[in-house]
Write a structure and sequence with these properties.
Length: 290
């Protein structure tokens, strides 16, 4: 017998035994999997990230040229993932101020309720109020939140009720000038308290309208009124945009200093006379202060 026959028989025998062992192992695993299904382990499958749209577009020539037959020929359209819709943020009407505590910057708090979810939380100055914005101011009956670059005020239930009552009881403005009531041709009556309140801060009164010098023959004859603020001193005495104020109580208004002096002198007066030019015509108005 040749020498190579014995090693060959041994190798074949070992190969056959290995195959039989693998088959037996698979059969045992299959039977055990049926008897104990929970014990069978699912092989881990690696999850690959989805290809980018740019990578997919590199396969476009395959479809365009029909390399897999006419049935698959066409254009590859890139798929654009849509971003989820952003949820609307908390609105001012969804917040209610339940109480405040005021102290130093780090000891000032506001208890705020989110009405829709009934969630109540305490916020310190500078804290983010839900998803609306940071808390920037706290008063006894109100708090302010900076939302979208604007200060939004929320009130306590007591302040809300008081504001509603005040709005309902406030009388409507009278006459053409808001607080000036016409009683005759060129004659008006002005509420003394309202006039004095407007004159308490003469600096503020000068911002109630824009005054530009009106020139005549190279000299300032008066001041043209524009941007009249409703409720301000100029609106109170019935001034309109475009009027040229010449004199107050016969005192000429031909310089900023005289304009300030004239306005300051109105406080405590019982009568006011305005000389002005309206629509190109000289006009005088007389006011009784009551």
């Amino acid at each position: 017998m040749q020498k190579w026959v014995v090693p060959l028989n041994i190798a074949l025998t070992l190969l056959i035994l290995s195959v039989v062992a693998l088959i037996a192992s698979d059969l045992v695993s299959f039977r055990l999997g049926k008897l104990f299904p929970g014990a069978a382990k699912t092989p881990a499958v690696a999850t690959l990230p989805p290809p980018a749209a740019e990578d997919l577009m590199s396969f476009a020539p395959i479809l365009t040229r029909g390399l897999f037959g006419k049935a698959t020929q066409g254009q590859l359209t890139p798929v654009i993932a849509t971003s989820p819709t952003k949820q609307a943020g908390t609105s001012q009407s969804d917040l209610l101020l339940l109480g405040t505590a005021r102290g130093s910057f780090r000891e000032t708090f506001a208890l705020i309720q989110k009405i829709s979810s009934k969630e109540e939380r305490v916020f310190r100055l500078g804290d983010q109020v839900f998803d609306m914005g940071p808390l920037v101011a706290v008063q006894k009956e109100s708090a302010e939140i900076l939302a979208g670059g604007q200060r939004v005020k929320i009130l306590t239930p007591t302040a809300v009720a008081a504001e509603a009552t005040s709005s309902a009881s406030q009388p409507p403005a009278q006459g053409r000038g808001g607080l000036a009531t016409q009683v005759g041709t060129g004659s008006y009556v002005i509420d003394q308290r309202a006039l004095n309140a407007a004159l308490d801060n003469i600096g503020q009164a000068m911002t109630d309208a824009r005054l530009l010098p009106s020139m005549k023959d190279g000299k300032v004859e008066g001041f043209r009124v524009s941007e009249v603020r409703q409720g301000g001193i100029f609106s109170t005495v019935g001034m309109r945009n475009g009027d040229v104020l010449l004199r107050i109580n016969d005192f000429p208004i031909d310089s900023p200093e005289k304009a300030i002096q004239s306005l300051a002198s109105l406080k405590g007066q019982s009568r006011i006379k305005l000389d002005l030019v309206r629509d190109g015509q000289p006009t005088s108005f007389n006011y009784d202060i009551r």
